[in-house]
Design the sequence.
């Protein structure tokens, strides 16, 4: 077991081992729900909550679960967490609940969640597992919101459209219109736009990594980075 | 690179990427002129601007990728992509449609995949599909020859329309445009008319609208010249047009009121230019003889399916892109037997 500090766990989740850009896990919601910033943020918050709850519970039970049956136990834990979150969203964010539809229950199938349960939470202490869940969730949400912003601006010329679904009535004023909607680039809102935006973000991340690697490192122990692919 | 072997009496074909691309360009000239004759200056304006943009994007990408600019531009592939893209676009389309389409064709479909020889999809068709999906209104406005003649569109007025996206004063889009044959057929069939009623319309020639027939004939001429010059082989064009005509024929025989004739399908839209100039792209098409035949059949059938039951009037571009996806698989399973080996010839 590799023990790493909290700073490493957080850096892993947000950048080095980002579930969206590096592990490429959970692509289905990532691509399907990133049409607007508000949808992306809504699904991202639900995913963060699921990750924190499931990581914590898996870590709590890690001494009591026999390895042969660990996967069904993870599935039960994750499914319960997602069901609870679905009910919460249905009660307090009903508009957003309707917009996100099937993709809230589908958080169960997000590979990033069961992947973290298996790879991290089942072999680390509770606080570390919770921090990892939070960091991974925030990393995932960050990518989701970035793709959402890109697609919303290019596709319909707005930012934070329908923000009242998430923030209540005052959210209406958050809507920013950059250009009139009829000049939007429809492709960005369609599924190919999600793949294009995703590819561009991965390219930008690899470019940044390559630049960082090329820079002389002042500290004594440079951390290992994933090999930058050709961008 | 060219090897000069002087001893034996070898015949040097003298083909290079650039010379092949330029022969395809020459073969496009008659059909392009026919389209310009019927649809006005807009066709030529589109071709010139698209080629200009395509070459510009190509130069930009080649510079960014630190490759020799002269060599890459010298192979004329960007010119060809821009030209084919321009022929798919309505002649009075605004300039930003051309810019977005050629940008996607060259930057995304060609250079992000590694440049000429590495692109799995036909760049011109990617550019066309991107603008078709994104700007449905601009892409449906095909001018009618009579409308243009009445409004006496000069080169200057055409340029103004292209650059500003607005028609000259006193004209509106309804006056100068008309549904293309495939659009016309689709709308008429949806509204309960029969095929016969559509083809009796005065704008129809023997098979399709007169101007599309003539453009088709001249593209056919260019295509046959390409076959004669052995720039392309017969497999893809023949199998594509035959399969399109066959499937259209089957449905036409079953119900001639609901399904248009095979000749209508072959002479409307992009079937002929697609068969000879687009589907035969040496990079993104299948390469084995049997693979090419299957590739062509796939395009023909998909084109018919998309035209008849799909959401868009013409399906050649979508069919070509879909078959581009399976071209490597086709090549894998249709490798010809190696001479001197028996069996499946994988030795």
Sequence:
């Amino acid at each position: 077991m590799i023990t790493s500090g909290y700073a490493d766990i957080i850096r892993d989740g947000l950048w080095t081992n980002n579930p969206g850009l590096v592990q490429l896990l959970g692509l289905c919601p990532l691509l399907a729900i990133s049409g607007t910033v508000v949808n992306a943020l809504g699904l991202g918050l639900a995913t963060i909550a699921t990750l924190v709850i499931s990581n914590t519970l898996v870590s709590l039970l890690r001494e009591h679960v026999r390895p042969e049956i660990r996967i069904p136990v993870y599935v039960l834990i994750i499914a319960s967490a997602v069901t609870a979150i679905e009910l919460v969203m249905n009660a307090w964010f009903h508009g957003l609940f309707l917009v996100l539809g099937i993709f809230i229950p589908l958080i169960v199938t997000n590979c990033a969640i069961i992947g973290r349960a298996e790879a991290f939470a089942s072999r680390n202490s509770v606080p570390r597992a919770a921090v990892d869940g939070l960091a991974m969730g925030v990393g995932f949400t960050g990518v989701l919101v970035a793709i959402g912003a890109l697609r919303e601006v290019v596709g319909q010329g707005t930012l934070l459209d329908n923000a009242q679904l998430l923030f209540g009535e005052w959210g209406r004023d958050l809507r920013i219109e950059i250009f009139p909607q009829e000049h939007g680039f429809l492709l960005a809102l369609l599924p190919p736009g999600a793949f294009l935006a995703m590819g561009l973000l991965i390219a930008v991340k690899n470019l940044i990594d390559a630049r960082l690697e090329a820079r002389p490192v002042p500290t004594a122990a440079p951390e290992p980075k994933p090999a930058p692919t050709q961008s | 690179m060219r090897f000069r072997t002087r001893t034996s009496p070898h015949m040097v074909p003298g083909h290079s990427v650039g010379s092949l691309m330029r022969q395809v360009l020459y073969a496009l000239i008659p059909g392009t002129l026919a389209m310009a004759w019927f649809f006005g200056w807009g066709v030529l304006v589109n071709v010139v601007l698209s080629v200009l943009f395509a070459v510009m994007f190509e130069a930009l990408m080649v510079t960014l990728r630190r490759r020799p600019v002269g060599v890459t531009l010298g192979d004329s592939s960007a010119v060809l992509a821009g030209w084919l893209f321009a022929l798919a676009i309505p002649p009075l389309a605004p300039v930003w449609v051309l810019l977005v389409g050629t940008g996607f064709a060259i930057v995304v479909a060609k250079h992000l995949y590694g440049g000429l020889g590495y692109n799995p999809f036909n760049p011109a068709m990617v550019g066309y599909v991107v603008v078709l999906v994104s700007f449905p209104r601009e892409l449906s406005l095909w001018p009618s020859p009579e409308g243009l003649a009445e409004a006496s569109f000069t080169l200057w007025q055409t340029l103004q329309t292209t650059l500003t996206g607005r028609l000259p004063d006193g004209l509106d889009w309804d006056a100068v445009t008309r549904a293309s044959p495939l659009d016309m057929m689709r709308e008429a069939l949806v509204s309960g008319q029969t095929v016969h009623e559509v083809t009796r319309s005065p704008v129809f020639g023997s098979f399709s609208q007169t101007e599309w027939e003539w453009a088709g004939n001249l593209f056919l001429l260019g295509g046959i010249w390409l076959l004669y010059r052995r720039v392309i082989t017969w497999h893809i064009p023949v199998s594509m047009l035959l399969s399109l005509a066959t499937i259209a024929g089957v449905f036409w025989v079953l119900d001639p009121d609901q399904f248009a004739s095979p000749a209508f399908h072959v002479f409307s839209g992009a079937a002929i230019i697609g068969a000879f100039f687009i589907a035969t792209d040496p990079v993104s098409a299948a390469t084995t003889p049997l693979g090419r035949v299957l590739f062509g059949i796939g395009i023909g059938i998909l084109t018919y399916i998309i035209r008849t039951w799909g959401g868009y009037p013409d399906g050649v571009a979508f069919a070509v892109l879909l078959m581009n996806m399976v071209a490597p698989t086709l090549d894998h399973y249709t490798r010809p037997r190696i001479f001197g080996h028996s069996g499946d010839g994988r030795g």
Remarks:
- Chain A has one domain: 7-214.
